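If your schedule permits, I should be very grateful for your opinion on a structural question. The matter concerns a single protein, recorded as an amino acid sequence and a row of C-alpha cells. Could you please explain, in whatever detail you think fit, how the C-alpha cells follow from the sequence? I set the record out below, with my sincere thanks for your time.

——
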Amino acid sequence: MDEVLLALPFTGRWRARNSPARRVPSHGTDLMASRYAIDFIGVDDTHRTAHRVDWRTILATEPPTRFVAFGRPILAPSHGTVVAAHDREPDHAARRSPLALIPYALGQPARIRAGTPAIAGNHVIIAIAPGTFVALVHLRQGSLTVAVGDPVTQGQHLGECGNSGNSTQPHLHLQAMDHTDLSVARALPIRFSTFLEMPHATHRSGLPRENSVITPLIGPATTRTATG
C-alpha cells in the first residue's frame, strides 16, 4: 500500500505519542480510520508539556491554557482542498489526574455513539489526491482560518491546537484515510518528510519513534504519495 507523504503540520517541538512506528493499530483500534494515526503533544525547550504542576494535576481537572500545545499554530501538511471544517465544539478541561480520568473513561461509549463531532471535536479534512484525505483533529474552538472549498498550500495556517472532542489534554491528532466520512473510511499509512528527532538530534524521514521529541526541518515541498 502506498504511504501518504506529508510535512509535519507545525513548527517548534512536539512529542510523538501513539505512533504507528510502535504498533499498528496505533490507537489500539481501527475505528474511525485511526489504524495509522499519530498524536503530537507540544512541549517547551525542556520537553515539558505544561507550564505548571500543582494540586489540580493530582486531584482534579486543569485549564487547557496551562498546556504548551494549546493555541499553537497548526499548518497544512500538504497542498490540497478543504473538504470538511468544523469549529463549534468547546475546548474541555484537561485531565492528567488518574482521579479525573476515571469519569472521562466511563463516558467514552457515549462519545462514540454521539459521532464524529464528539470524537474529533474541531477538525479540518483536506483532500490531497484522488481518494486520499488527511484529517487534523482536536483543534481550538473558533481558531479555524479555512472553510470547505478553500485551496490550501503546504505550510498554510489552518487553525490552532486545542482540546476539543475525545481529548484529555491539548494535542494534535493526524491521520490519512480514503474517505471523508470517518464512520466508513479506511486508514492509509503515512510518513513525514525530514525532521529532527531528539534526544540525539537524529535527522530522519519516516515516522517518529514513540515518545520522541521532534521538530520539522525546512526543505523543498513534499510530494503527496510515495511507495512504501
User: Anything to note?
Assistant: Residues 98-106 form the longest helix (9 residues). The domain at 3-226 is CATH 2.70.70.10 (Glucose Permease (Domain IIA)). The chain has one domain: 3-226.
